[in-house]
Recover the amino acids of this structure.
């Protein structure tokens, strides 16, 4: 290799590595595809089967109980508007994919965040990985995802999970760490086991911050799911990508607005859930 | 048997802890070892007896909070052993330590450390929850303890809705509900404002008189230490410099550091009548006759005598006038002239602050008697005022009062001390018309002391 004109074939190596992984762990990748794809198909079926208006009412009721009548009213009008823009099926597809990705992301992020808060070396290892995941351009995830999982919902879900995961881990770790040390000490001083302290003291007290992390994960997942349209994940992302490639302004605008409606709905509902933790309830009672 | 026993406890933070301990044992200064590790507690040994309030006092950084945390295993010791009711925490495994904490040692925290998402009642029940007590039972018990600390009816509130003092009462109720033998209190009242703090101290003393717990109390406030502590350990730079009763520390400070420290203490709450009382020989048996009384008066330059029976029980006073009159009229005993109106007795445990009021109006020195009304000593006004002024000698060199009966009269050549005491006695035995000027003198000297302080 010429010293003055270096060229490191890193990309080729990674590509070779991915090929090797794909061929060696085909069974694992198939399993992941089966689980994620199956979950997506199930949710999409559930969301798209009822008459659209029934689904809107269901979403509005969820919004009402989580966040109150204002958000419920927005949900009614917003999703009716989405239907009027002829983006209903795409929206339900996107919603299903977001939910799948968020569930998996949280299943990884929250335990990992707790572990990082408890074990300092885990924190030290996880932090640079999270930095890497967050700073890597989101689109760059998509290519290896296609390579490994082919075209469809699964690579979209995988890319979304990777992209949305970091704030979940970070905020969970932060939340657990910032729980008042004296309160934790009180638990210890009365003979509580570590499990009791985690479950009855640390997690309840950390809940508002953890919920802020959940909210972040959902919003990031939504933004990534749109990009995932590029790898054939369909849904609103597919519509937007289609709009771009065909310079179809009406389609791009309509699909884009539908994304906004879904985003506002998810954000308000999850933010409101963060206000319903025991600690927030106590705070409100005191106010 | 001692309930808590710490033997040569070291606690070092840092990388080379054992090295630090070894060097400290060889006499190194902890400030020279900071590169190896930070020694927070150095060679601490003490025993705490059942039912005692043991106060560990020191400024911040003295290691007292670290020390108390070794007593329930929140910190493990680097060297030395801590025994709680016979269990050595240094060698116990995690589950044994948790058991000790749950059953034997509970703790009250400086910033209360209540669970903000639970109600006051649930917080008070927390210690029982960990012990696995059924919900209904533990909430019922919690309610009882809330009542005991004066929080009846607050059970449904959340901690944030309570004032600091009330929150700490919840903390206290939580610790008491555990019904452990030992109660650790880490700067428990330090975050409270002074009036509330005083109130809490008094409540703790009152609770302790009923519960008789073994309390280890950490504080940086000397007044608090003196007020609460049966014994006090003073810590400085990680070491225990002195262990003793409040009075011992006040009157016989182990070094200049402590002497300087105790200068600012509110002595009226700490010193008791027994620590400032003086011996008196101006006493006479009830069986004696007026002539003997006259001689005793004369020997002591006194104008009145305390009348005692053969068990030294204080029966009353005789004044010089009455004695002279009785002698002239040929009475055989002084029995008929004993009067009680001017006699004011106090217990040896009465704090000085309680003595000011009676002393200011009494015509004669206050008489200190034990529970059987036997004479222990007297507190002349000048002794009371002296105790306020001078930290050292005035209170330190009082001879202890002999408890066994002394020869009735015939005071041998009175020492300088004696004559001074008796002078005080004599002065205040004067007849009422002159007591006005005495009062003035007292006030004048009071003012003088005031300026000096």
């Amino acid at each position: 290799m010429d010293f003055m004109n270096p060229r490191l074939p890193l990309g080729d190596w990674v590509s070779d590595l991915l090929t090797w992984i794909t061929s060696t762990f085909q069974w694992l990748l198939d399993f992941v595809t089966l689980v994620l794809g199956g979950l997506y198909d199930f949710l999409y079926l559930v969301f798209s089967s009822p008459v659209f208006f029934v689904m809107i009412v269901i979403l509005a009721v969820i919004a009402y109980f989580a966040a109150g009548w204002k958000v419920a009213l927005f949900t009614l009008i917003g999703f009716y508007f989405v239907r009027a823009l002829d983006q209903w099926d795409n929206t339900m597809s996107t919603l299903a994919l977001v939910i799948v990705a968020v569930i998996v992301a949280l299943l990884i992020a929250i335990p990992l965040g707790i572990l990082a808060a408890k074990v300092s070396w885990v924190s030290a290892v996880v932090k640079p990985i999270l930095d890497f995941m967050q700073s890597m351009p989101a689109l760059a995830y998509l290519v290896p995802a296609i390579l490994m999982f082919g075209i469809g919902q699964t690579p979209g879900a995988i890319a979304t999970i990777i992209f949305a995961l970091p704030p979940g881990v970070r905020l969970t770790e932060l939340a657990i760490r910032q729980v008042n040390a004296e309160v934790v000490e009180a638990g210890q001083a009365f003979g509580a086991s570590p499990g009791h302290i985690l479950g009855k003291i640390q997690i309840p007290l950390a809940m508002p911050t953890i919920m802020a992390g959940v909210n972040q994960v959902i919003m990031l997942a939504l933004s990534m799911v749109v990009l995932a349209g590029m790898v054939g994940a369909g849904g609103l992302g597919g519509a937007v990508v289609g709009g771009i490639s065909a310079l179809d302004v009406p389609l791009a605008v309509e699909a884009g607005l539908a994304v906004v409606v879904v985003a506002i709905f998810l954000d308000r509902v999850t933010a409101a859930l963060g206000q319903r933790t025991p600690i927030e309830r106590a705070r409100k009672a005191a106010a | 048997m001692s309930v808590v026993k710490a033997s040569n406890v070291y606690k070092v933070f840092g990388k080379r802890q054992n090295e630090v301990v070894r060097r400290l044992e060889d006499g190194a200064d902890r400030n020279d070892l900071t590169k190896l590790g930070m020694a927070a507690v150095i060679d601490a040994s003490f025993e705490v007896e059942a039912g005692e309030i043991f106060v560990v006092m020191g400024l911040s950084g003295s290691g007292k909070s670290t020390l108390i945390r070794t007593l329930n295993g929140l910190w493990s010791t680097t060297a030395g052993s801590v025994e709680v009711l016979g269990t050595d925490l240094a060698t116990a495994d995690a589950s044994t330590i948790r058991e000790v904490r749950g059953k034997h040692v509970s703790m009250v925290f400086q910033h209360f450390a209540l669970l903000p998402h639970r109600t006051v009642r649930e917080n008070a029940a927390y210690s029982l929850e960990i012990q696995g007590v059924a919900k209904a039972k533990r909430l019922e018990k919690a309610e009882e303890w809330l009542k005991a600390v004066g929080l009846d009816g607050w059970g449904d509130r959340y901690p944030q809705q309570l004032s600091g003092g009330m929150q700490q009462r919840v903390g206290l109720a939580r610790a008491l509900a555990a019904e452990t033998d030992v109660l650790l209190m880490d700067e428990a009242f330090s975050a409270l404002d002074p009036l509330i703090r005083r109130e809490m101290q008094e409540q703790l003393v009152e609770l302790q008189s009923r519960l008789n717990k073994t309390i280890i109390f950490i504080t940086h406030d000397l007044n608090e230490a003196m007020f609460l502590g049966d014994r006090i350990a003073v810590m400085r730079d990680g070491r225990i410099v002195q262990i003793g009763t409040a009075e011992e520390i006040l009157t016989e400070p182990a070094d200049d550091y402590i002497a300087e420290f105790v200068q600012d203490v509110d002595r009226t709450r700490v010193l008791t009548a027994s620590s400032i009382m003086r011996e008196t020989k101006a006493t006479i048996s009830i069986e004696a006759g007026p002539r003997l009384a006259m001689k005793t008066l004369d020997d002591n330059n006194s104008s009145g005598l305390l009348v005692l029976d053969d068990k030294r029980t204080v029966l009353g006073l005789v004044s010089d006038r009455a004695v002279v009159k009785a002698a002239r009229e040929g009475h055989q005993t002084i029995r008929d002239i004993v009067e009680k109106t001017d006699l004011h007795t106090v217990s040896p445990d009465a704090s000085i602050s309680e003595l000011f009021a009676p002393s200011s109006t009494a015509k004669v020195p206050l008489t200190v008697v034990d529970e059987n009304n036997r004479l222990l000593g007297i507190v002349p006004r000048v002794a009371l005022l002296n105790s306020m002024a001078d930290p050292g000698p005035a209170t330190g060199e009082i001879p202890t009062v002999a408890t066994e009966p002394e020869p009735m009269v015939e005071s041998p050549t009175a020492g300088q001390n004696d004559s001074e005491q008796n002078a005080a006695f004599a002065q205040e035995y004067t007849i009422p018309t002159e007591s006005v000027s005495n009062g003035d003198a007292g006030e004048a000297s009071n003012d003088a002391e005031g300026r000096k302080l």
